Queue: 2 jobs
Job 1
Amino acid sequence: MPTLVILRHGESTWNAENRFTGWTDVDLSPRGEEEAREAGRLLAAEPALEIDTVHTSVLKRAVRTANLTLDEMERSYLPVRRHWRLNERHYGALQGLNKREMAELHGDEQVKLWRRSYDVPPPPVGRDDPNHPINDLRYRGVPASALPATECLKDVVHRLRPYWEDAIGVELLEGRTVLVVAHGNSLRALAKELEGISDADIVDVNIPTGFPRVYDLDDRLGVRGARYLGDPEAAAAAAEAVARQAQR
């Protein structure tokens, strides 16, 4: 049966500073590098879990997490495919701003809507803003109409779905074990689709950094079982820490 492993990148420098990151291309913090290596150790400790292919976003915190994880597994030779559709959600005009400061300015409930609601996007950036992806060379091959000025989670679900259907899902249906290294919200979008999580319940779903989550799938890619590798209490505590980032 096919197996999918999802892994949120290790802590980034802007995670450590509690900033909205989105499509801004920041690097891993030293802690994030160690989280990526620990993810590799957890995967290597599962002898029945032999990764065949890897997918990442085009953002360096995901790319470097995948590289460090594979190095720790001694599987750096595995094929890796990178795609913008696995990027974090675009946080629009919030990118670069501190989450708690935004909560103090706009209120806890408004910031929670921007961070966690299914269909409420933050304020957009203009097309002349450096934070708009049309001004980033890595997206020069993507139609401008496909590039976001802001996104809610619903938008991420829609832009991720074609890549799931045309790339990741195809490999899984061939019986491969696939590792996807991406971001909190692109992985929330994927989990929502896989697990059938409602629009209301997805608000309270948080993906911790550095803990691989393994999905055992059936031959139609339905979920037979799912678990985090490593200490379950530590994974739950890390997810709760994500939920508290914007609280005052």
Note: The helical segments are 13-16, 30-44, 60-73, 99-106, 108-116, 153-173, 184-195, 232-243.
Job 2
Amino acid sequence: MRSVVVAAFFCLIPGWLPAQESLDGRQGRQLLLENFRPRPTLKVPQTSVTKARFPAVDVHTHFRLKLRSSEQLDDFVKVMDRNNIAICVSLDGQLGDDLSEHIEFLSKYPGRFAVLANIDWRGPGQADDPSTWDCHRADFAHRTAAQLRDAKKRGAIGVKIFKNFGLEIKNPDGSLVRVDDPRWEDIWTACGELGLPVLIHTADPVAFFQPIDENNERWEELHRHPD
């Protein structure tokens, strides 16, 4: 027992343990991928593009999340003007009064913004209990179709379905809800009749679901953004 205690004591003395090698890649040392900062040696003529040549449409913005004040909206429109972005499409308009409020917020600049409505699959249900989610009620698709008709009247120009549909929205038995589930037929029919295009994100790269190890082709991305 005494020899064990002595050995443990000496291990705590600075210098007794080998120093960990710096993973900076310098002087032939190993390089941690997140420290890799290559500088291109190929020198070719460059054209600095400061704005779009023709008026552009940005179809992927989240203004409900990003813009909290009228001043922020003013600043963003200046960025649009500087880059020749004619119109931005806000993807998170939601439904009902929330949709109207969002459209009203952006109406400070008429003709510069368009808004997509969203579908609320969970409703007031419990996050950890799919059996309580609104999408499993018998009249869900019919009610959602009616909400989309209302959204059209309020000014929505399309429907954005976020990627939790396909990745997180589940049936009561725990299986993922399918995009082509016949229960949603009334929803898609209503979108067609109303002329509301559907922008839908249903999945992520297959590498996101594989082990995060040396064989994963998206290791660097997953390492930087583990969520």
Note: The longest strand covers residues 56-61.
